[in-house]
Every structure is written in C-alpha cells, then in structure tokens.
Amino acid sequence: MLVWCTALFFTTLGNIALWKTLWSLIDIHDLRSALFFCSLPVLLLCLFNLLFTPIGMLPYARKPVLALLVAVSAACTYFMLHYNVLIDRDMVQNALETNQAEMTSYLSLPLLLTVLLLGALPTCVLLIMRSGNSGRPLRAALVWLGNVLATLMVLAAVSLAFYKEYSSLLRNNRYIREQVLPLNVLRHTYGYLRSSYSAKAQPLRTIGEDAARTPGERPRLVILVAGETARAKNFQLNGYPRPTNPQLSRKDGVISFRDVASCGTSTAVSLPCMFSQMPRSQYEGVAAASEENVLDILQRTGASVLWRDNNNGGCKGVCNRIPTDDMPPLKVPGLCVNKDGTCHDEILLHQLDTRIAAMQGDGLIVLHQLGSHGPTYFERYPADSKAFSPTCDSNQIQKCSNEALTNTYDNTLVYTDRLLGKAIDLLQTYSEQRDVALIYVSDHGESLGEHGLYLHGTPYFIAPREQTRVPMVMWFSPGFATHARLDLACLSHAAGTGSYSHDNLFHSLLGLFAISSGIYQPGLDVFAGCRIP
Rounded to two decimals, what is the model's pTM? Predict the structure, then answer.
C-alpha cells in the first residue's frame, strides 16, 4: 500500500510540470489520441510501482527514502513550473555544488508553499501510514512477485498497444524524460556521484609537457575576466540599442566579438570547458577534472598565474593548482552589503595592484565574476549603476513585467562594463613597464522570459540563443599589439564577421603568451590569422 500510494502521488500531483507538458503536446483530435492520453497515467503508475517496489522491501529505510524523494521532487516542481527549467545532469550538479548564498537567493513564499503542499503534507501522510512485514515470509515474497509480474504485464500491454504514439512522443520530445520526477533526480544524481568519484580516483594527467614560452621584449600582463550569465544579445557593443556598455564604448581599441558560442548553459560545464583543451563536441566533465588545463601550462612554463574569485560556485576545479584569492571573505566595506553575503564585483580589483607588483615576468590574472547571476539580479549592482528603471527587485522574476526584468538585468551589464573599464584603467598604469591586455568572456547566457524560459541551464540541444551566445571583448595596449605583432584592424574585422566559441580560448591564450607546444592548434587561435609576419 505504501508503494502504491507513493506511485499514485507521482503519477498525479507529484508530476504537475510533466502533465502540463504532455497536455500541450498531445492533440486529442480522435478516439485513438484520447485513448493514448488516457494510457499515460497507467504507464506512469506501472513505472513508479516498479521503481518503488525495491524501496518498499527495505523494512526501516522505505519511509525515509520515499519521504525524501517526495520532498526533493516538490522543490524541483517549483523550479520546473516557475522558471520552466529541466532537471538534467547539469542542473543536478548545479544544485549539489551550490552554496548558502545561492540557495538563499531563491527563497520565497511561493517556494515554501510549494514545498509545504507538495512535499511536507504528502510526506506526513507517508510517515503515518501503517507498514510492516508480514509474519509469513513466503506469503510476502509471493505478494511482491505477483505485484511485479502484474505490473509488468500491464506495462507491456499499454506499451504495445500504443507503441507508435509513445515512440513518436519520446523521439520528437527528448526533453520529456528530464521532467519525470523523481526518475530524473535519481538518474542524474547517480550519474553525478559516479562521475565525481571517477574524477577523484583518477590521477592528474599532464598535458602539453613539451610547452615552452618565448619571453617577449617586455613582460606581458593579461587580465582575463570570466563573466557570469551575460548574454551577447544585450551588449551595446554588439548592436544592442541601449547603453549597457557606456565605459567600453568610450575607450579606444576595444574589440567585441559578436558571434561567440558557449560550451554549456551552466557554470559547472562552461567554466572548466573554457580552460580545457577539449572542444565542446568532445567535452567530458570527468576527463576535464582529471587533467591539466591551460592555466597549468602557463604556470609550468614560468608565467605568474592568479585566480581571484567572487562567484558563489567557485572555480569548479579550474584553479585547484594555482594561487587563488577568494574575495567575499574579505568583507570589504561598501562592496559586501548584500544580505546573502555576496559582494559586488569591484571587490575583484581590491588591492590588485599589490598582487601585480609581486608578479615576476609574464602574468595572467583571472577575475571570476558573480556578474549577472539571477534570480536576484537587483543585488548584483550598487545603486549608482542603476541606469534603467523601473526594476524587478524580487527573486520572483517570472512575476515582473518584461520591462522591469530587462531593466534590472541590463543594470547588471552596466556594472560589469564599469568593472571592465576600471580594469583597463588599472592596466594602463602599467603600460610603461609591461605589455598589457584585457579579455572578457562570459560562461553562458540567460533567458529572461523568452519562450517561457527563465535563468539558464536548459539542455544545450534545445537551449535558445539567449543562453548559448555570450559576449567576448578584448583590449590591447599599443605596446602589446606591437610586440605581439597583432594587426588590430584585422582582428576587429574578424570579430565582427567570424563565428567563435569557448573552444578558442585555450589555444588563443597559448598563442597570446607565445607558447609553443604540440597541443597548440593555430586554427583555434583567434589571433593566428591577424599576426603580422
């Protein structure tokens, strides 16, 4: 009874988002279509019964396990209904790797009510239900066996009767499987834990062991800003009609790449992929976590490398082997004023001049932003960067008007623009002693209600361009361009006409620091075609 009640719950209220999708996909225009739709709850009930039956055989663990599945699924239902997200492998990884600050940003009354109604109340019912083992083991085993066999027979009958319809539905709408709670949670949690264990069990694999760096006429200093949740569509430098880049637009020599594809739609995928030698088509998280990245190569060839982090989720393993400054714990007055403990991104420049002064020779500094991370966009910028009004000062972004939501998001980009402008100003103070440059590229984009989607993390194969097209901006001092033999006019033209992706970053950094290695691919170096012989 416990198993069947849980299965019935997940066939109905526990999968509201799934039923919402199925209702929109299936056109009940004739008797067969109506019968097919009616067969769906039967199929789901059988599947859930088979899933929960092994759990029901655990005498002391069944109630806690089933209750946990109900509670977790209730929280997932909230995000699926309100933000139209899918619970896939990347989303599970994001949830398991999140921290207190990011969790706090999602807390709201609707979330608490959803968890109460679809999680706490059903859980209480499960916990007070009577369940015990029969005093006759043979009889109990026969009951379980009969239950499974009967369920399999019904499942086979339904599947065979509507095989054509089920095949078409699942083949043409692959994302449906990421909506079936709690199957999606269990499958992807297992996959994440398995891959995490595999990554930790494997020894670190070195790459580019033959790498050698050719020193320039003067030491190079590059600041690489790893952006967060910025989409190319809303960058003024890319033709957006609103002034979201007032600082960069006034600076000479700024080059914006208009067509850049991200490696993923979440930080957990895109950030390690950006610095990995693997292109998106071959990227695999376990392999990336167990091998060196471009920062390791730079450091091994004698360059000074520094990672400064202001992101909730950390560096996702990218900075594990290089010097790292975790900025929020510094609690710099005026910059760390948010209730969730996050800091504004200008903290990344705090005492950066001291760190630069300690660098010997070539140097690369990575500034990892909090950027435009939602849903609390209004907390990502100080009041003096509020260029557009009215704003959406709530984490219930799906309830805000499109105008207010866009204004708030664009304000985050104005603040990022201010950070980049100050970073360039800082670099220019070293232009007499060093060849200096800045590179900015975001990890992924963001949906602001287009197609009913919010935030990010949509599976890449169905993700809209708002989530997969990111801004990439570069600036070079005249000295850097001269000594690196860069034709900036050529690079500017290529940036406006060519198509690029995160795949280019690894090889472009090697080329920028004049590192020769068998692992270097000139075809993926954005600068290779614009070097003066």
Answer: 0.89
Q: pLDDT higher for 82 or 424?
A: 424
Q: Which residues pair with 531 in a beta bridge?
A: 486
Of 313, 264, 317, nearest to 287 by C-alpha is 317
Among 80, 178, 79, which Cα is nearest to 462's?
Answer: 178
In the chain, the N- to C-terminal Cα span, in Å, equals 78
**What's 27-86 look like in SS3?**
CCCCHHHHHHHHHHHHHHHHHHHHHHHHHHCCCCCHHHHHHHHHHHHHHHHHHHHHHCCC
DSSP 8-state secondary structure symbol assigned to residue 434: S
In this predicted model, what pLDDT tens digit does every residue of 437-482 receive, in sequence order? 999 999 999 999 998 999 999 999 999 999 999 999 999 999 999 9
Token pair, residue 219, equals 């030491």
Per the DSSP assignment, residues forming a β-bridge with 366 are 224, 307
Running DSSP on this structure, what letter comes out for residue 384?
G
CA distance 394 to 396: 5
Beta carbons within 8 Å of 69's beta carbon, 6+ residues apart? 6, 182, 185, 186
| Number of residues written out for the chain | 533
CA distances from 463 to 232, 395, 459, 469 (A): 15, 22, 6, 10
63 CB burial (10 A radius; 0-12, 13-18, 19+)? buried
